[in-house]
Task: structure prediction
Amino acid sequence: MIEVAVISDVHGNRWALEAVLADITRRGIRRMMNLGDCLYGPLDPAGTAELLLGLSAVTVKGNQDRVILAPAQSEDSPTLQYVRASLASHHVQWLASLPMTLVVDDLFYLCHGTPECDDVYLLREVREREVVLRNALALETLLRSITQPVVLCGHDHSPEALLLPRGQLLVNPGSVGLPAYTDDLPFPHAMETGMPHARYAIVSRQAGKWAVQDVAVAYDWEAAARAAEENGRPDWAAWLRTGRA
Result:
């Protein structure tokens, strides 16, 4: 039997990560895969980094991990400046060492967004007035070079599992640390789960059959929201408390 805990988009939310890791331990799951966007956010990037560095999780880099590593610019947001100032050199070195994509056991293909772009949603398409699931043909086109039977992706913070006609399983575990947000690109849109819980997924295979379990974990989201407020992000605080954007 294969059993893997899949996490993504922690976004520096140490409180949520602690609760998820406790739940994974309680279930006796020993393998973990992390799909990136680990530390960016007005919460506890350093504490989150220490937790992640202590794990044996296979990890890929997300688009906002990449942003942290980019040279500082005068127009950088206060949140980005806060994250960089919070991290120690060994945290930054760990982020820099992460690959953009990864194949594990020739069974799992890991990416943050799509195989080509870490800042593009794989399972969803953003249109001018809506966000919709991509159809099977579009997904198979995006994954035309990927032969592994399971594709793990993050980035849109929305728990989802899809099975393509060719038999490939696609899994987004949702976000450990940020259940809702707004974005301006490629069009203004909101992503929301409607609940403040930390999310992750369990992917397993037994007798040749794959299964996916979406897990929602309660944690002290009020503590995370207060940290966001203290660091100048009332928008994050609202998202964390409600799962609504």
Observations:
- The first helix runs from residue 14 to 27.
- The mean pLDDT is 98.
